[in-house]
Amino acid sequence: MGTPQPRRSDTHQRIQDVALELFAEQGYEKTSLREIAEKLGVTKAALYYHFKTKEDIFVSIFEDLGRPLDELIAWAQDQPHTLETMTELLRRYSTSLSEAAPLFRFMQENQATVRELSIGERFKKRMIAMSELLRDPSAPLVDQARCVVALFSLHAGMFALNSIEGDPEEKHKAVLEVAIDLVTQAHSTEVS
Predict the structure, then answer these.
(1) In the chain, N or C terminus with fewer CB closer than 10 Å?
(2) Does domain 10-191 correspond to CATH entry 1.10.357.10?
(3) What is the Cα–Cα distance from 134 to 69, expressed in whole angstroms?
(4) Longest C-alpha distance within the chain, in Å?
(5) Which helix (DSSP H) or strand (DSSP E) does residue 103 occupy?
(6) Could you tell me the CA-to-CA distances from 68 to 95, 99, 129, 152, 184 in Å, in that order?
(7) Of 136 and 163, which is predicted with more confidence?
(8) What are residue 104's phi and psi, to 5 degrees?
(9) Tens-place pLDDT, residues 25-53
């Protein structure tokens, strides 16, 4: 996906990081701008200089962490529709998920809030674009399903494997392997 883009100013990023931490711990609805300012050690007025609302903060987090996904989609659209491309797409997406784990954890645990905020529809469009890049619309339905499930197995793996003992990196690799196996199986059926 190229070189990671810097995430604005240090203050801007600190606000996003603290807000996301509080949103994940307490929930979006239960977190106030005052609490974010207190945890940062700044006045509420100083926080208002950067963001007027909690929604402004969250949307900026989503956009900053979502930018690599937009770049990944653009990259994949320029590639041939091969097993190698699909495998690389899954690898890169898996890395993006790991890097944005707090955001995805928040989205998983606060689905009602995500639907209410403007980001829900944008995330849905990104997931549709990703699934279209992984599947062949002329393939049998079972193979199309394998490709879509491969994508969402990466999401599920972030949460489902938390209760399983083991090294986080090994669990991450295992989930990626399962996703790649699904796409490989779908591709081998298409080729036969």
Answers:
(1) C
(2) yes
(3) 14
(4) 65
(5) helix 101-109
(6) 10, 10, 14, 18, 25
(7) 136
(8) -70, -35
(9) 888 889 999 999 999 999 999 999 999 99
